[in-house]
Design brief:
globular; mainly alpha; Dopamine_rcpt; single chain; transmembrane helix; GPCR_Rhodpsn; Dopamine_D4_rcpt; Rhopdopsin 7-helix transmembrane proteins; membrane
């Protein structure tokens, strides 16, 4: 999202010693070189890690679970960010924060930035909804991929709806400074921040709290049931155990086999995949909360002095999240870790 505001455009140019025809001088400084190297490394890490996530899920049947379908959608958002947003952002940062390209390209950059960031958090929300349904009403939960694909499609459509006003002329205001690429309309900044972050985050956290609370209750009930079972009948000759002498009506009837199978599906591979989700959500909040707090503060308080370096730092931190998710899967998910070890073979098979 826009990394400069109208109020601090002149301050940005003055602070970084850039302006007019001398703006390209920022390329010669050591800070610009470090920015370029860091940007290239970040883009490479995002592309490599998230491509590996997509290839792994596509090639390994063990990873093709409903939760991982959403993770692939999240990885796709990160890949598009690395291809469509990060190169132009790094270019602007190397120039000292000065925008030297066309206004139309700036508007496209802002729209894609808003949409992809919104798609990321909407995908996390979709995972929370899907997992809540799987735990709260397991007998009605449909594991077929069609429902998950419809939910993923809805997240992308909603994300596009949040971003499309930028492409419809909202950013083309009178007195616009062509040297700064930003979201011009402060009302839209508040609207997009609320829709993309401040509303979805509490909903997502509430759903995860309810999901893991229900999961703990289910596991406690399952352990109680297992501990309450009688001893198994020995295989050799001899008298039957005392429990066998009980009349049939005294033996409690267990749940039907179909219900047992449906409940057991929650305790398999999908439950293992759920363990990584709190870490993914936590990393997203740590990386993006500072950006949105600074972003909406500048919109609601134009007179507040927000240093451009702080704006740049929180923007870099937000983009860093796109490179963290594959590392999280590697550290906290044993199945992803085992598949990632076979990465060379996966790449050869895809080629």
């Amino acid at each position: 999202m826009g990394n400069c505001s109208a109020a601090d455009a002149d301050e940005l140019l003055a602070e970084r010693g850039l302006g007019g025809a001398g703006a390209s001088a920022g390329l010669a400084g050591p800070g610009a070189a470090a920015t370029l190297v860091g940007g290239v490394l970040l883009i490479g890490a995002v592309l490599a890690g998230n491509s590996l996530v997509c290839v792994s899920v596509a090639a390994e049947r063990a990873l093709q679970t409903p939760t991982n379908y959403f993770i692939v959608s999240l990885a796709a958002a990160d890949l598009l960010l690395a291809l469509l947003v990060l190169p132009l952002f790094v270019y602007s940062e190397v120039q000292g924060g000065v925008w030297l390209l066309s206004r139309g390209l700036c508007d496209a950059l802002m729209a894609m930035d808003v949409m992809l960031c919104t798609a990321s958090i909407f995908n996390l929300c979709a995972i929370s909804v899907d997992r809540f349904v799987a735990v709260a009403v397991p007998l009605r939960y449909n594991r077929q991929s069609r429902r998950q694909l419809l939910l993923i499609g809805a997240t992308w459509l909603l994300a596009a709806a949040v971003a499309v006003p930028v492409l419809c002329g909202l950013n083309d205001t009178r007195g616009r400074d062509p040297a700064v690429c930003r979201l011009e309309n402060r009302d839209y900044v508040v609207y997009s921040s609320v829709c993309s972050f401040f509303l979805p985050c509490p909903l997502m956290l509430l759903l995860y709290w309810a999901t893991f609370r229900g999961l703990r209750r289910w596991e406690a009930a399952r352990r109680t049931k297992l501990h309450g079972r009688g001893p198994r009948r020995p295989s050799g000759p001899g008298p039957p155990p005392p429990a066998a002498a009980a009349p049939p009506e005294a033996i409690p009837a267990g749940p039907p086999p179909q219900a047992r199978r449906r409940r057991a599906k929650i305790t398999g591979r999908e439950r293992k995949a759920m363990r990584v989700l709190p870490v993914v959500v936590g990393a997203f909040l740590v990386c993006w909360t500072p950006f949105f707090v600074v972003h909406i503060t500048r919109a609601l308080c134009p007179a507040c002095a927000v240093p451009p370096r702080l704006v740049s730092a929180v923007t870099w931190l937000g983009y860093l999240n796109s490179a963290l998710n594959p590392l999280i899967y590697t550290v906290f998910n044993a199945e992803f870790r085992s598949v990632f070890r076979k990465a060379p073979r996966l790449c050869c098979c895809c080629c």
